[in-house]
Amino acid sequence: MRAVVLLSGGLDSYTAAAIAKSEGRSLHALTIDYGQRHAREIESARLVARSLGVDRHLELTVDLRAIGGSTLTSDVPVPRDRNLQEVGVPSTYVPARNTIMLSLALGWAEVLDARDIVVGFNVLDYSGYPDCRPEFIAAFEKLATLATRAGVEGAAFRVHAPLVALDKAEIIRRGIGLGLDYGLTTSCYDPSPDGRPCLHCDSCALRAKGFGEAGVADPLLLR
User: Fold this and answer.
1) Which of 25, 98, 151, 172 could disulfide-pair with 131, CB 3.0 to 4.6 Å?
2) What is the residue-wise DSSP string for 173-186?
3) Residue 11 sits in a domain of what CATH number?
4) What is the average pLDDT score of the chain?
5) pLDDT tens-digit profile of 180-193?
6) pTM of the predicted model as reported, rounded to 2 decimal places
7) pLDDT value for 85
Protein backbone atom coordinates (compact mmCIF):
# COMPACT_ATOMS: atom_id res chain seq x y z
CA MET A 1 0.00 0.00 0.00
CA ARG A 2 2.90 2.35 -0.72
CA ALA A 3 2.01 5.52 -2.65
CA VAL A 4 3.82 8.52 -4.12
CA VAL A 5 1.88 11.73 -3.52
CA LEU A 6 2.52 15.00 -5.33
CA LEU A 7 2.57 17.46 -2.45
CA SER A 8 2.49 21.16 -3.33
CA GLY A 9 1.76 22.72 0.03
CA GLY A 10 -1.76 23.69 -1.01
CA LEU A 11 -4.96 22.48 0.62
CA ASP A 12 -5.91 20.16 -2.27
CA SER A 13 -2.79 17.99 -2.25
CA TYR A 14 -2.80 18.00 1.57
CA THR A 15 -6.36 16.66 1.60
CA ALA A 16 -5.69 14.09 -1.13
CA ALA A 17 -2.64 12.82 0.77
CA ALA A 18 -4.61 12.61 4.02
CA ILE A 19 -7.32 10.60 2.29
CA ALA A 20 -4.70 8.19 0.94
CA LYS A 21 -3.22 7.83 4.42
CA SER A 22 -6.67 7.19 5.92
CA GLU A 23 -7.05 4.34 3.44
CA GLY A 24 -3.94 2.68 4.83
CA ARG A 25 -1.32 3.82 2.34
CA SER A 26 2.20 4.71 3.40
CA LEU A 27 3.12 8.03 1.83
CA HIS A 28 6.20 9.08 -0.07
CA ALA A 29 5.75 12.79 -0.76
CA LEU A 30 7.24 14.50 -3.81
CA THR A 31 7.46 18.29 -3.99
CA ILE A 32 8.71 20.04 -7.12
CA ASP A 33 10.43 23.42 -7.07
CA TYR A 34 9.74 24.42 -10.67
CA GLY A 35 10.77 28.06 -10.39
CA GLN A 36 7.31 29.18 -9.35
CA ARG A 37 6.97 32.74 -8.11
CA HIS A 38 4.98 31.45 -5.13
CA ALA A 39 7.90 29.39 -3.77
CA ARG A 40 6.39 29.90 -0.32
CA GLU A 41 4.41 26.74 -1.05
CA ILE A 42 7.62 24.69 -0.74
CA GLU A 43 7.84 25.67 2.94
CA SER A 44 4.17 24.78 3.37
CA ALA A 45 4.79 21.40 1.74
CA ARG A 46 7.44 20.67 4.38
CA LEU A 47 5.00 21.54 7.17
CA VAL A 48 2.27 19.43 5.60
CA ALA A 49 4.61 16.47 5.10
CA ARG A 50 5.58 16.55 8.78
CA SER A 51 1.93 16.84 9.79
CA LEU A 52 1.07 13.77 7.72
CA GLY A 53 4.02 11.76 9.01
CA VAL A 54 5.13 10.72 5.53
CA ASP A 55 7.75 8.01 5.18
CA ARG A 56 9.93 10.30 3.10
CA HIS A 57 9.65 13.79 1.63
CA LEU A 58 11.65 14.24 -1.56
CA GLU A 59 12.17 17.71 -3.05
CA LEU A 60 13.30 18.04 -6.66
CA THR A 61 14.20 21.13 -8.67
CA VAL A 62 13.09 21.39 -12.29
CA ASP A 63 13.37 25.02 -13.37
CA LEU A 64 10.52 25.72 -15.77
CA ARG A 65 11.21 29.46 -15.81
CA ALA A 66 13.61 28.82 -18.68
CA ILE A 67 10.65 27.60 -20.73
CA GLY A 68 8.28 30.32 -19.55
CA GLY A 69 4.78 30.58 -20.95
CA SER A 70 3.06 31.24 -17.62
CA THR A 71 2.58 34.12 -15.22
CA LEU A 72 3.68 31.73 -12.47
CA THR A 73 7.13 31.25 -14.02
CA SER A 74 7.78 34.80 -15.21
CA ASP A 75 7.65 38.40 -14.03
CA VAL A 76 4.40 39.04 -15.90
CA PRO A 77 1.76 40.14 -13.35
CA VAL A 78 -0.60 37.47 -12.07
CA PRO A 79 -4.24 38.28 -12.96
CA ARG A 80 -6.19 39.77 -10.08
CA ASP A 81 -9.91 40.00 -9.38
CA ARG A 82 -10.66 37.93 -12.47
CA ASN A 83 -14.13 36.64 -13.22
CA LEU A 84 -13.81 32.96 -12.29
CA GLN A 85 -16.58 32.09 -14.73
CA GLU A 86 -14.47 33.15 -17.71
CA VAL A 87 -13.99 30.40 -20.27
CA GLY A 88 -10.52 29.42 -21.43
CA VAL A 89 -7.14 28.45 -20.06
CA PRO A 90 -5.86 31.14 -17.66
CA SER A 91 -2.38 32.65 -17.87
CA THR A 92 -1.45 30.83 -14.64
CA TYR A 93 -1.42 27.56 -16.58
CA VAL A 94 2.16 26.25 -16.68
CA PRO A 95 2.85 24.38 -19.95
CA ALA A 96 3.01 20.61 -19.37
CA ARG A 97 3.58 21.07 -15.62
CA ASN A 98 1.42 18.19 -14.46
CA THR A 99 2.76 15.88 -17.17
CA ILE A 100 6.29 16.64 -15.99
CA MET A 101 5.43 16.22 -12.32
CA LEU A 102 3.53 12.99 -12.84
CA SER A 103 6.44 11.64 -14.87
CA LEU A 104 8.81 12.31 -11.98
CA ALA A 105 6.35 10.71 -9.56
CA LEU A 106 6.07 7.71 -11.87
CA GLY A 107 9.84 7.29 -11.96
CA TRP A 108 10.08 7.34 -8.18
CA ALA A 109 7.08 5.02 -7.84
CA GLU A 110 8.75 2.46 -10.09
CA VAL A 111 11.94 2.59 -8.01
CA LEU A 112 9.92 2.21 -4.80
CA ASP A 113 7.92 -0.67 -6.28
CA ALA A 114 4.81 1.43 -5.66
CA ARG A 115 1.85 1.34 -8.02
CA ASP A 116 -0.19 4.25 -6.70
CA ILE A 117 0.30 7.96 -7.37
CA VAL A 118 -1.89 10.45 -5.52
CA VAL A 119 -2.74 13.93 -6.83
CA GLY A 120 -4.97 16.76 -5.68
CA PHE A 121 -6.62 17.54 -9.02
CA ASN A 122 -10.22 18.71 -8.62
CA VAL A 123 -13.23 19.94 -10.54
CA LEU A 124 -12.35 23.62 -10.15
CA ASP A 125 -8.90 23.03 -11.61
CA TYR A 126 -9.91 21.08 -14.67
CA SER A 127 -12.44 23.77 -15.61
CA GLY A 128 -9.43 25.85 -16.61
CA TYR A 129 -6.32 23.67 -16.67
CA PRO A 130 -6.29 20.96 -19.36
CA ASP A 131 -3.86 18.77 -17.40
CA CYS A 132 -6.22 18.33 -14.44
CA ARG A 133 -9.05 16.60 -16.31
CA PRO A 134 -10.10 12.98 -15.80
CA GLU A 135 -9.25 12.32 -19.46
CA PHE A 136 -5.67 13.39 -18.79
CA ILE A 137 -5.43 11.13 -15.74
CA ALA A 138 -6.72 8.13 -17.73
CA ALA A 139 -4.29 8.84 -20.56
CA PHE A 140 -1.35 9.09 -18.17
CA GLU A 141 -2.23 5.76 -16.55
CA LYS A 142 -2.09 4.17 -20.00
CA LEU A 143 1.22 5.90 -20.71
CA ALA A 144 2.63 4.64 -17.39
CA THR A 145 1.93 1.06 -18.40
CA LEU A 146 3.54 1.48 -21.82
CA ALA A 147 6.56 3.52 -20.74
CA THR A 148 7.94 1.59 -17.76
CA ARG A 149 9.69 -1.73 -17.22
CA ALA A 150 7.20 -2.49 -14.44
CA GLY A 151 4.34 -1.87 -16.85
CA VAL A 152 5.81 -4.07 -19.55
CA GLU A 153 6.25 -6.80 -16.94
CA GLY A 154 2.57 -6.63 -16.04
CA ALA A 155 2.25 -3.98 -13.34
CA ALA A 156 -0.61 -1.49 -13.50
CA PHE A 157 -0.05 2.03 -12.23
CA ARG A 158 -3.00 3.99 -10.84
CA VAL A 159 -3.27 7.77 -10.52
CA HIS A 160 -5.64 8.50 -7.64
CA ALA A 161 -7.43 11.86 -7.75
CA PRO A 162 -9.89 11.57 -4.85
CA LEU A 163 -10.93 15.22 -5.11
CA VAL A 164 -11.59 15.35 -8.84
CA ALA A 165 -15.38 15.57 -8.49
CA LEU A 166 -15.43 17.82 -5.42
CA ASP A 167 -15.64 21.59 -5.16
CA LYS A 168 -13.49 23.57 -2.69
CA ALA A 169 -16.12 23.58 0.05
CA GLU A 170 -16.50 19.81 -0.18
CA ILE A 171 -12.73 19.37 -0.10
CA ILE A 172 -12.43 21.58 2.99
CA ARG A 173 -15.21 19.72 4.80
CA ARG A 174 -13.54 16.41 3.99
CA GLY A 175 -10.22 17.67 5.31
CA ILE A 176 -11.73 19.05 8.50
CA GLY A 177 -13.32 15.65 9.03
CA LEU A 178 -9.83 14.16 8.83
CA GLY A 179 -8.53 16.68 11.37
CA LEU A 180 -6.34 18.66 8.97
CA ASP A 181 -4.84 22.03 9.89
CA TYR A 182 -5.29 24.18 6.81
CA GLY A 183 -3.29 26.92 8.51
CA LEU A 184 -0.21 24.97 7.38
CA THR A 185 -1.09 25.38 3.72
CA THR A 186 -0.72 28.18 1.21
CA SER A 187 -2.70 28.82 -1.95
CA CYS A 188 -1.78 32.32 -3.16
CA TYR A 189 -0.18 32.70 -6.59
CA ASP A 190 1.44 36.02 -5.69
CA PRO A 191 2.12 36.27 -1.94
CA SER A 192 3.98 39.15 -0.32
CA PRO A 193 7.64 38.65 0.67
CA ASP A 194 6.55 37.67 4.18
CA GLY A 195 4.13 35.07 2.78
CA ARG A 196 0.83 36.87 3.25
CA PRO A 197 -1.75 35.97 0.57
CA CYS A 198 -2.70 38.69 -1.91
CA LEU A 199 -6.43 37.82 -1.58
CA HIS A 200 -7.02 38.83 -5.21
CA CYS A 201 -5.59 36.07 -7.45
CA ASP A 202 -7.72 33.18 -8.74
CA SER A 203 -6.36 30.78 -6.16
CA CYS A 204 -7.06 33.13 -3.24
CA ALA A 205 -10.56 33.75 -4.59
CA LEU A 206 -11.30 30.03 -4.90
CA ARG A 207 -9.96 29.37 -1.42
CA ALA A 208 -12.06 32.17 0.09
CA LYS A 209 -15.14 30.94 -1.73
CA GLY A 210 -14.53 27.39 -0.49
CA PHE A 211 -14.15 28.35 3.15
CA GLY A 212 -17.16 30.64 2.90
CA GLU A 213 -19.36 27.92 1.45
CA ALA A 214 -18.04 25.41 3.98
CA GLY A 215 -19.07 27.80 6.74
CA VAL A 216 -15.73 27.86 8.50
CA ALA A 217 -12.99 30.47 8.93
CA ASP A 218 -9.75 30.09 7.01
CA PRO A 219 -7.12 29.48 9.75
CA LEU A 220 -4.43 30.95 7.52
CA LEU A 221 -6.08 34.36 7.82
CA LEU A 222 -6.35 34.10 11.60
CA ARG A 223 -2.61 33.88 12.16
Assistant:
1) 98
2) HHHHHTT--GGG--
3) 3.40.50.620
4) 94
5) 999 999 999 999 88
6) 0.95
7) 79
